[in-house]
Design a protein that fits this description.
By secondary structure, the protein is α/β, with parallel strands linked by helices. It folds into two domains: about 140 residues, Rossmann fold, CATH 3.40.50.720; about 180 residues, Dihydrodipicolinate Reductase, domain 2. It is about 35% helix and about 25% strand. The strands form three sheets. It has a six-stranded mixed sheet. The chain has a five-stranded parallel sheet with strand order 2-1-5-6-7, with helices on both faces. Strands 3-4 form a two-stranded antiparallel sheet. It is globular and about 60 Å long.
Length: about 325
Amino acid sequence: MKVAVIGATGLVGQKMLQVLDEQNLPIDELIVAASEKSVGKKILYKDKELTLISVDQAVEEKPSIAIFSAGAEVSLQYAKKFAANGTYVIDNSSAWRKDKDIPLVVPEINASDISVDNHIIANPNCTTICMLMALAPLHRKYKAKRLVISTYQSVSGSGHKGLNQLAAEQKGEVSDNPAYPHQIHENVIPHGGNFSETGYTAEEDKLVFETNKILHSDIAVTATVVRVPVFGGHSESVNVEFEQQFDLDEVRNILSNTDGVTLYDNPSENIYPTPIMAFDKDDVFVGRIRRDFSIEKGLNFWVVSDNIRKGAATNAVQIAKYIIENFAI
């Protein structure tokens, strides 16, 4: 069993190595690949030094599974080359998410969308994963009709550039390679991804499209993405209108019994999710559950997750685990 991590030096790539170690997958050989400038350097995995190779070299190794976290451009260039060798590619970029022939997967929700012939599988955007972990079980019960989402996304979603910009600005310095067009320290920026002609950003459009692809639904979705001066952990305020009436106690019971979700909801005791409590955890945390009295079947909830773990690395490793267990590779 050969597994390759493409983009192993990045923020998500490093977390993928950590999660692979934690999940204890049956890996005989781990291949780590990165950009040409990193080739030959060493990286630690299970207290062993691994040598970084190029992506071209990784293709020649013909791994059973290749987990990509190197950006859309690299994925578009190399994913099909790996797939042609029989490798199962799990891609964390936006490169393949809209392709109708490629499954977009959150394992707890739609792992069955993956067939043995799907040699490229797309990992959804971090905000989509976080929100759907809570919404999907409620949608199955009450059928969601409309969603209004506001995100509060940490700078780790922009990789090392985002982290470095916030750290520099906290010290009163100017980042020499900023991730954002404005100061992020002591500020919030309503901007995630490039703006389209509609006035929405790429991150907002992802929430609309990915929600319905994963759920096989036609829910009306609108979103506003906001970057906040938090180092790690994405938060989302979600307003959902259901087609069927719901009971709040039943909602809480459903969420309490959903794998990968932790209900953290007792506002009278100041118990509700925050990014700090979600740090380096795989679960998605849900709280501030309350009825929306402005519409008949409306619900508000607040959801928080570690965007680098369940929002990226852990979800990809879970897909790899599903492939290993179901396709006898």
